[in-house]
Specification:
- This is Ankyrin repeat protein.
- InterPro entries: OspF/SpvC_sf.
- It comes from Legionella brunensis.
- The protein is of the alpha+beta class.
- The strands form two sheets. The protein has a seven-stranded antiparallel sheet. Strands 8-9 form a two-stranded parallel sheet.
- About 2% of the residues have low confidence.
- Helix 13 packs across helix 15.
- The protein has three domains: 147 residues, Phosphothreonine lyase fold; 102 residues, no CATH class; 103 residues, no CATH class.
- The protein is built from 15 helices and nine strands.
C-alpha cells in the first residue's frame, strides 16, 4: 500500500479492509477514528490489536522526514519495518496539516484580540465591568485546556477559583485587574503556541514511531542504520526532530517515555526523564568529526575551562549524553561566565540556554542530583532571571 492511499480521506475504510484481509501482510491497521485519525498503527496480527504492556515503558525511536518526501520515504521504510519492526505507527500528514493550520489561525486570532485589548485599555475604552468579564472569559478557556482527570477535584478547583476571584476583585483597582487580565491573555497565548508546536512536530518531522521490545534495542539500531543509508542514497530530505528527543542520526531520534508512568514529550526537559540506561549509539550516517562524544576528548582541552565548554556547546555539532554529563559539573561556572559577557553576547547565550533544541539548552537540563532541572530552581533559574533582566 502506498502512503497516499493510506491517508486518502475518500478511501480509508476500503483500503484498510483490503490491507487487513491480505494474508501476506504481517500487520493489521488500527486507527483511532475511521475518517480523521492522526496516526495509523501497524500491529502484528498475532497481537490481536493489543500492545504488550512493556512497550509503554521502554525506549521508542522516531524517523523524521520532510513532509513533501513522505511518499518516497514510505516506499523505502515500510518494507524494512515489515521485516524487522515489532510494531509502529505513522502520522497522517493530511490531518496534522489541517490541525496545525487550524491552531495557527486560532493563535493569530487570539494575538489580534490581545493587541486590541491593550489598545482599548490605553485609550480608556474598558471599564471595570468589561475587564472583569474578559478575565472570567479567559479563565474559563484556560481551564478547558487544563482539565483534571479526577472529576471531583476538577469540580472543586473550578468553584474554589471562581470564589477566590469573586472576593479578590473587591480589593483590586482597575489597573490591578488589567494586569491580572493581561497575564491571563499571556498564559492563553503560551498554551496556544504550545499546541501549534505540538501539532507541527508530527507534520514537519517525527512521523514514524517505532516501539521497541525490551532487549531488542541494538537490533532496532541496526535497522535504523539500514533505513538511513537508503534514505540518504535516494536524497530523501530529513524532517525536524523535536528538541526533547535525542538525535542519533540524520533522520533518527530516540526517547524514553518513563519507567513507571508516561511523560509527554512536550512537558519534559530531556529525552530520558527517569535516567534509564541508554543503549543507543550515534549512527554511522553522522560523520565522526561532527560528534563530540568521549569524556577523554573533553578532558584534553584546557582542563575543561569554562571558555572551552561554551565553545563546544555553541558549535553546531552533536554532543553525546555522556559528554554533556561530564561537562554538567561546570554549570555554575558557565552561568557566571555568561553573566559577565558583553550585552549582545550575553543575550545570545541566554536565549540559547533556554532553548531545549540547542546544545546549551541540553547542557543546562542535564540532571545531576535527585531533582530535575526546572526554570524555578538551580542554574536554569539563574538563566531565566538573566533573561528577565535583559528583557
Amino acid at each position: 500500500m502506498k502512503y497516499a492511499d493510506l491517508i486518502d480521506p475518500e478511501n480509508l475504510t476500503y483500503s484498510e479492509n483490503i490491507f487487513n484481509q491480505n494474508s501476506d501482510e504481517k500487520f493489521t491497521i488500527r486507527r483511532s477514528f475511521s475518517d480523521n485519525s492522526y496516526f495509523i498503527s501497524f500491529l502484528p496480527k498475532p497481537w490481536k490489536n493489543k500492545h504488550p504492556k512493556s512497550l509503554a515503558t521502554n525506549w521508542k525511536a522516531r524517523l523524521s522526514i520532510h513532509p513533501e518526501d513522505l511518499d518516497k520515504a514510505w516506499e523505502i521504510i515500510y518494507p524494512i519495518l515489515c521485516q524487522n519492526a515489532a510494531t509502529f505507527k505513522v502520522a497522517n500528514r493530511n490531518t496534522f496539516k489541517k490541525l496545525m493550520d487550524d491552531r495557527k489561525q486560532k493563535l493569530d486570532r487570539l494575538l489580534r484580540h490581545y493587541n486590541q485589548f491593550l489598545a482599548d485599555y490605553d485609550a480608556d475604552c474598558l471599564d471595570y465591568h468589561s475587564l472583569r468579564n474578559k478575565y472570567y472569559e479567559l479563565s474559563k478557556i484556560i481551564n478547558i485546556y487544563n482539565p483534571n482527570q479526577w472529576r471531583f477535584v476538577s469540580f472543586a478547583q473550578y468553584y474554589y477559583t471562581k470564589l477566590a476571584n469573586f472576593f479578590s476583585f473587591y480589593f483590586l483597582s482597575k489597573d490591578q485587574l488589567f494586569i491580572h487580565t493581561r497575564q491571563k491573555y499571556e498564559q492563553l497565548i503560551e498554551q496556544r503556541k504550545q499546541k501549534v508546536a505540538n501539532s507541527s512536530r508530527f507534520y514537519e518531522g517525527m512521523q514514524f514511531t517505532l516501539y521497541i521490545l525490551q532487549g531488542l534495542e541494538k537490533n532496532l539500531q541496526l535497522m535504523l542504520k539500514e533505513i538511513e543509508i537508503l534514505l540518504l542514497r535516494e536524497n530523501i530530505r530529513p524532517g525536524i526532530i523535536y528538541p526533547t528527543d535525542r538525535q542519533i542520526g540524520i533522520y533518527s531520534s530516540i526517547r524514553h517515555p518513563g519507567k513507571t508512568y508516561y511523560h509527554d514529550a512536550i512537558s519534559v526537559d530531556n529525552y530520558n526523564p527517569d535516567n534509564a540506561n541508554d543503549p543507543f549509539d550515534f549512527l554511522e550516517t553522522i560523520p565522526t568529526e561532527e560528534i563530540i562524544q568521549e569524556n577523554d576528548y573533553l578532558q584534553q582541552q584546557s582542563k575543561q575551562t569554562t571558555q572551552f565548554i561554551i565553545h563546544a556547546l555553541t558549535m553546531k555539532k552533536f554532543i553525546s549524553p555522556t559528554a554533556l554529563k561530564a561537562m554538567a559539573k561546570h554549570k555554575e561556572d558557565v552561568v557566571d561566565y555568561i553573566k559577565n559577557l558583553p550585552l549582545d553576547a550575553r543575550k545570545k547565550l541566554v536565549t540559547e540556554s533556554l532553548d531545549k533544541s540547542t546544545n546549551l539548552g541540553a547542557f543546562f537540563r542535564v540532571q545531576r542530583g535527585i531533582f530535575k532541572p526546572r526554570l524555578s530552581r538551580g542554574t536554569l533559574q539563574e538563566i531565566e532571571r538573566e533573561r528577565k533582566l535583559l528583557a
